[in-house]
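Table S2 (text version). Query chain:
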Amino acid sequence: MKFNIMHPLNHLIVKKNLFSTITLEYGTPLYIYSAELIRENLDRLELALKMNFQKYHICYAVKANSNPHLIKLMKNHIPDLGADCSSPGEIHAAKLASIQPNKCIYTGNYESYEDLEFAFKAGAHINLDDISSFHRLRSIGLPEEISFRLNPGFGIGAFSQIVTGGENSKFGVPHYDIVNAYRLAKEMGIKKFGIQCMTGSGVLDRNYYPYLISEILKTIQQLTAELDIHMDYISLGGGYGIPYKDDEIGLDFNQVFRDVAKIFNSYFEERNKKKPALWVEPGKSVVGNAGILLTRVTGIKESYKTFIGGDGGMETLMRPALYGAYHRMYKVGEAETSNEITADFTGPICENTDRLAVDRDFPQVIEGDLIAIMDVGAYGFSMSHNFNTRPRAAEVLLDGEKTQLIRRRETIDDIFRNCHV
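Corresponding structure-token output:
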């Protein structure tokens, strides 16, 4: 088996002594994040935006990974960084990382009064999912500015479950109702406006983003013609994919935003209109490939097929069980071997869907070997859970050769700390 030489963290996998030392101190399963790669990912994104837009704002999607230490690392690297938040907890995580709510966009869905009140009182930019959301917000108070999430009637994503636009999506105001949403807001005294459109996650087609901005601009043209309103910002949302397989090619942000800017700039220049700021909400593209999950082989079963069991399963990394997602996996310390087996990788969970990989070719392993699961920085820990009453993993930041515990391992007592017997 050969490593994908393009993966930016492959140089770490061969460092068996490094990972052995780390796991001796912090245990397994263990999430490890590369500080250096997070900074590099941010640099690539910001440079592409700076080269192509007069005004832009990056709102990191907290849902991807809400560890405040990681968010603070990003904030220290890009001082003007904002956050894309979908719950009061995510606004709180951003504040812990010193990102003020007025730098955040709050996009809930089917929001409770309590959620809307929290976002309103915090002072976040509120992006509403529906006209009914506006009515609930009115009973709490009205901000000076409002945004609505547009569902343009289409969407794409790496899996059907993460397509967030189109007729089957629960998100956003349908395109045929978007004018009514803004008309109501204007009639109720709203003076400033934005618009947001997020239609899917894990998108690697660079041609999709210029297509999406074109469709958003068609909606803006309609809103301008019928309501005479100006957008202070247009949020293209997130959804920027990363390669999970060897044969996938990552997005070239320079090309993506050059193509988006060409359409964006020409629209406003031809109409002699003031250009709004372009907002983006990246999550996976910032932290996804910077995360490695280390699990230890706890058992090997020769049954109707070969099963390799580890101390981390679907409770630690949910994406394979939830979506059938593919993650590259390597035996720590070995760059390649001709002695391969084919096995399913599973964990200790009492569900037959507890598979991290199915029919995967892999080097021979023995109990105690470390397995590195790649590209888990986004929707890894943030989607982990306590099924079978298993404590969640620890998280460690790797900055050069320096390690820092940024979330301690849960204990069984932690799980029950809010129970009263």
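Notes on Table S2: The chain has 13 helices and 18 strands. The chain has a mean pLDDT of 94.
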